[in-house]
């Protein structure tokens, strides 16, 4: 008899995998360009810095001349500070500018993948990217993973470093705190090792299959209950002797 994979169980939508999105304070992204912002800039005031269960970073509530928006808070931002957004905005932490207007070497975050999408890259607490070089209509940025990525020069980004750095350094101390963290995003917790299960519960379970040096690649035509382990891996092993 087949057994559902984790992804299949999650897609079914049971309470174990439901994120409590009704507790989220809203969508955090760059607002659509206004006509004034396209030509010059607009100025806003930080009215509050809040916590959202759906985000690891603090969220700043900003009022841009009557237009309220949510933004990822940079380190050092306070209630009452003024921030700007636009082509001619000042080079200051918390301001939003297109990559074409940001000097090389500047630290940035919440970078748009395509102009106008609101920001997709570098959004977790303590994260930042760095502008490396500029071309005619492209900008090279070094991401937190140290990989370089090329963006459209019209993509917007926020200047500074995301607040909340060092979050992962604090220990959870007890399993209940970890359960609440995972449950806020619809993640299964605790996770039992497959090797610790009985043979009827998982293909890796049982005392006769506890060897940890065997292949972990699922068969190509394995049924749903047996398709576990490395499913269509790009590569396996430690990679010794592979061509660079």
How are the SSEs ordered, and which strands pair?
Blueprint: H1 6-12, H2 35-39, E1 41-50, E2 59-64, E3 67-72, E4 82-86, E5 96-98, E6 107-109, E7 129-134, E8 138-142, E9 148-152, E10 156-159, H3 175-183
Antiparallel strand pairs: 1-2, 1-4, 2-3, 5-10, 6-7, 6-10, 7-8, 8-9
In a few lines, what is going on in this structure?
With 244 residues, the protein is mainly β.
Describe, in plain words, how this protein is organized in 3D.
- There is one protein chain.
- With 244 residues, the chain is mainly beta.
- The protein has two domains: 1-18 and 186-231, Ribosomal protein L2, domain 3 (Irregular); 23-165, SH3 type barrels (Roll).
- The chain has three helices and ten strands.
- Strand 7 and strand 8 (138-142) form a beta hairpin.
- The longest helix is centred in the C-terminal third of the chain and has 9 residues, at 175-183.
- 19% of the residues are buried.
- The model has no long low-confidence stretch (mean pLDDT 87).
Q: What structural category do the secondary elements indicate?
A: mainly beta
**Remind me, CATH topology of the largest domain?**
SH3 type barrels
Q: Rough shape?
A: elongated
Rg = 23 Å
Number of domains as seen in the coordinates: 2
Cα(first) to Cα(last) distance is 44 Å
Helix share, percent: under 10%
Question: Any idea what the CATH architecture of the largest domain is?
Answer: Roll
The percentage of residues in β strands lies in 15-25%
Quantity of strands, as a count: 10
